[in-house]
Here is the input.
Amino acid sequence: MEDLRLLTSGGVYVDDLRVPELLGAAYVTFVRSPVAHAVITGIDTSRAEAHRGVVAVYTAADLADLPAPQPFRSSGTDGGFFAEPPLAGEKVRFVGEPVAVVLTDARYGGQDAADLVVVEYELLPAVVGHAQALRDDTLLFEEAGTNLADQRGRDAYDDDVFVDADVVVEREIVNHRVACVPMEGRATAAAFDGTRLTVWHSSQNAQRCRSTLAETLGIPTEAVRVIVPDVGGGFGAKIGIDRDAIVVAWAAWKSGIPVRWAEGRAENLIAMTQGRAQLNRVKIGGRRDGTITAYRLDVVQDAGAYPRTSTLAPVTCTMAPGVYDIPHVQTGYRVVVTNATPVNKYRGAGRPEATAAIERAVDLFAAEIGMDPAEVRRRNVIAADAFPFHTRTGAHYDSGEYEAALDRVLGAAGYAGLRAEQTARRNNGCTKALGIGMSVYVEMTGGGGETAKVTVDADGRATVLTGSSTQGQGHHTAWSMLVEAELGIPMDRTTVVHGDTDLIPKAVGTYSSRSLQLGGSAVFKAASHVRDQARRHAAGLLGASESDIVLDAASGTWHTVGHPGRSVVWAQVIKHADVESLSADVEFDSDQPTFPFGAHLSVVEVDTETGMTTLLRHMTVDDAGPILNPVLAEGQRHGGIAQGIAQALFEEVRYDASGTPLNATLAGYGAVAAADLPDFELEASETPTYVNPLGVKGIGESGTIGSTPAVQNAVIDAVAHLGVRHIDMPLTPGRVWAAINEAGDRRQTRR
Here is the structure.
């Protein structure tokens, strides 16, 4: 339903808005820190204020009464120490941190004016990377006395669980930092009429934005309206509203002038929250028959300059055992602050990191005992008849068929043939080494609730007000399909509305692959309630009992059982009800999350003379329960797979020793393009859940979770015969080539 508009006239994004409230708006430009760690010793805004076209210049001093957004709450220290101010006033902690904001009457005068703001910095040593943060040599927050923002679980480690293992393997695994790179960067516009603040924001949930703004500005919730127009990608980084957008809204509220801001690409790459950034140490033990008996995952989460969330490392620990029935599982984590862009949720948010760790660990264990990695997985996955399954880390898996998913992807790939080809190449001394890598994954999606209102008007048209907020997932199509299935109203006669707090005051929004299972279930139940209301009125109109009235969804007509010729349409039913419309409000809540699962297999070719990797094939089984719309589901799978492969092979945010980003433009950051990838081979699998009435699970993050370790395992598998045991991501040609040569040097030394 969205495609025609988006592909012809185009979407209407925040920066496209031409509404009366924004006439004469001033344009916002942020003055951002060029250094990673420094004390601010002075700010002079006089030259900027005198510059032609400048409307206002604000610094932290102007926002002194504005509280910091809700700080990270820690179990081990006072979370208030790590609060993130709206603008930096005393100290900067990462390159790109906002120090001042300039309002100009023209967009392109903003940077010239911002360059006139003089900020004096007293440089401090930068803390870059997990290891340096843990040493506490240099502190980001002196009053905290440590760079450790949180820790849990490590005091319960017990090496006794590994004593009886025939083989124990330990390895440090880097799950490196990546940028979100949405097609549309962050963007906000705001207008204050003296009574009410209206904010247009590129976000994944308008209602959370409204509550945060009201709390921060100290005004009633009803005095704030948030509207989310079309959004060009979110991936977790646009959940809620961050400090930059809060400052934009504050500027409109403070000045009484409408303002607007849309960041540039370089600004986005250094200032928008980033993802992953975990250092994981795995320890895995088991018997030589392939049985895994114990697993430990120790997580160090780099939170960047400000710990935005307390959930990433705990989620990684919860999902640590993955699809495996391991008798002993131990997890613990530490969260550290560094002089880098803050880390927050990014497509999968803790689950990809857990999968990457356990799937690498299984391959390391398989290599150590000399067993095929597929066979090790088959011997340890949770049996299909064991569900619902309670893991040793407290997760409650609803349903799954893990071995079947593995077998399906192996069969689709022709696994035995691939291994034979690999052996032949090795025997022939071929410099183009073939690698086969796999992963079997489970992820956690949804949980909580969502709202929906379905209305059918006197013309027989339907309107859906949904708490879910779309950023390209196809909600208008999916929700129209649900309405058509329940009410028989054609999809093109259904209007879907989202992202306006005046129309939908209570909602949760879109993240954690929750839309269909929660938002869709709410739409389904609301439509069912409307159908039940209509049945009563149709019975009166047709002079029959309610039990004898049926709805023919194919034609959208009501008739009595056995007499389809005697029927009435929706308009007649509503006219008989003597109302303008029939409607139902629903807030659907689920008792628990759902746990989609699947298996991925990657086939790569590695040039052992250059380290260059070519992805030849990628096959997946991504089971998210019954599929409502195959095109939408495949789109989600394709996008996720592409992002996961990109992390494995190309993408990495890098900093130098001073905390300066080394790839702050798309010329240096390896974002993936379609030409970099083969066609994906998608296998079908649908295992329903009992958690919601549609039986569905989330699909938005599955591809990202399963693909990354499959590709990493494939590249390492390709060069394993040369003595390579592990290579950290991203598996760039230089990194792979270096690993091959280091392994060769080790062989020469042993001789």
Observations:
- Residues 71-78 have pLDDT under 50 and may be disordered.
